[in-house]
Amino acid sequence: MADKYKIIGPVYDFLSTIYSGRQIHKAKTAMNVDLNEGDKILFAGVGHGQDAIDAAERGAQVTVVDLSATMLKNVEKNLKGRAFKYPIRLVHSDILEFDETAEYDQVVANFFLNVFPEDFMVTVMKHLTTLVKPEGHFVVGDFHFPTGNILTKAFQNAYWYIAVGIFTIFAKNAFHKIYNYPKHIESLGFSVEKTQSFNVLMIPSLWSIKASRKQVSKAQQEAA
Ligand SMILES: C[S@@+](CC[C@H](N)C(=O)[O-])C[C@H]1O[C@@H](n2cnc3c(N)ncnc32)[C@H](O)[C@@H]1O
Q1: For FRET with 126, which of 45, 120, 167, 180 sits at 20 to 30 Å CA-CA?
Q2: What pLDDT, on a 0 to 100 scale, did the predictor assign at position 215?
Q3: Which fold has domain 9-223?
């Protein structure tokens, strides 16, 4: 299959810094702070992997998966000369063919789910949740769902549509509205535990969402 990130892949992180300063990077690493040494963490659609490197620096056992050879080459470039307690494992695969079910303490989808049309995004999200251990976490970092007054929402939408416009042209990503990730996460039997927003021009434009499986009480289990 053709590598959709051949053109824009090499400059992906550069564009993200121009577009947000360090805010996109902060959104991508926000939930790494809760990791414990030795935790198994998966980054799906990893891109250049600075978030994965941050997790490895914290002592996590990191696996990264990406369909694009161009993106993985950039991860390798960023890994040159670095050593961690657990070396980062690179997997070149479609995430839907990666089936290490219930293996991960944390599964991270940073700016990954937004590349798909909504129905398929839910299929991918559902698959990602199967990779999470029973007590583990699922993390999504992405563009903030529009909230607040009309001007705030207009800015959040404009900020998203400029980005998705560029990636639709150069990487053939799906063109769509901003997804309501918490709603989809909850519909898959997870509860949102923590969210952190990141401002661009003082407006919450990016966020990181951390979720875990909904707890089922004994009474509910017996009734089921
Ligand atoms: C918008 S980029 C996000 C990259 C990175 N997570 C970040 O936050 O910078 C989307 C990434 O998902 C990868 N990707 C797209 N479809 C994929 C699939 N089906 N399986 C695995 N990776 C995929 C692309 O190659 C690309 O690296």
Answers
A1: 167
A2: 82
A3: Rossmann fold (3.40.50)
